[in-house]
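Suppose you are handed only these lines of text.
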Amino acid sequence: MFKILKSIKNIFVHIRSSLKIVLMIVIPAIIIVGIISIFYKPTYSVTLNGEFIGYTDDKNKVQKEVNEYMKGIQTENIAFIDIETLPEYSLCFVKRQNIDNSEEILSKIKQLGTTYYNYYAILLKDETKYYVPTKEDAEAIIDKLKEKDSNNIKDVAYTEIYNTEQQTFTAQDEVVEALYEKKPVYVPTYSNYYSYTIASAKVDLGIDLIKPIASGYTITSRFGQRSSGNHGGLDIAAPAGTPIHAAAAGTVVVSGWSNVGYGNHIIISHENGVQTLYGHCSALYVSAGQYVEQGEVIGAVGTTGNSSGNHLHLEIRANGSRLNPQYYLY
Ligand SMILES: [Zn+2]
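From them, the structure of the protein bound to zinc ion can be written out as follows.
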């Protein structure tokens, strides 16, 4: 019985000495770890394309920000971010004061990554003039130029751009103001109108003409050869003041006095390069640059200029030639 008690006592003594050894190792270890953890912290070292870019203690937060940045959520006009390889994270212990924040890591990733931008270029005659951030801006500019009836509207266009260059954008109204072009005021060049040759062949005009004054009046001089020289038009006698109607719709290019014998005359430019001329008028009711409809009263018969009685001198011109009006009218 005593033997048993003695051996139990021996076991306790043995345990106590073992415990002493354990405490001698564990306590200093805890103290050492405690001291280390005051100055050092478990951290992730972040590398991108093999280059060290910083430390973070929250790699999930950094990765989330990188993902959002790559989706282009954070900045306007960024189409996408191309980073050749994703950042790599490895656990390490670093001195507490060395811990970078994730914003700095993100800015380094931005520098190393390639950013692709998406925006729109406004073109004039296929040449880039301005940049705007959205398609809506580009379309609004085109619409506004159309509304203002800009002369160059056919030359203005836009195109979508994807590239690594960010551009400075110009405000919509500024672009509209800069590109707007007034319609030119028509300045007739008189010399061109009187150099037309007299053609004998009938030419298809491609437009329909109506009689400028009613039928039934006497034709006093036909087109072509006559004793006094070539006659480039058709003369129809009519009382002074008889209304003259536009033979077709078009733009009045001349309405005024002629120095070459037509007196008060009107020239209208029609489609297909066809022109009609009305000479010796007593009154002119239209002016240069004005658009007239077919049949609109433009002037009145008279005997102004090189004329010996009230009549309409009518000419039809196309492709640089004066054509016989009786191929088409009367
Ligand atoms: Zn004549």
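What can we learn from it? The two ends are 156 Å apart (CA to CA). The pocket of zinc ion is lined by residues 221, 231, 233, 235, 313 (CB under 6 Å).
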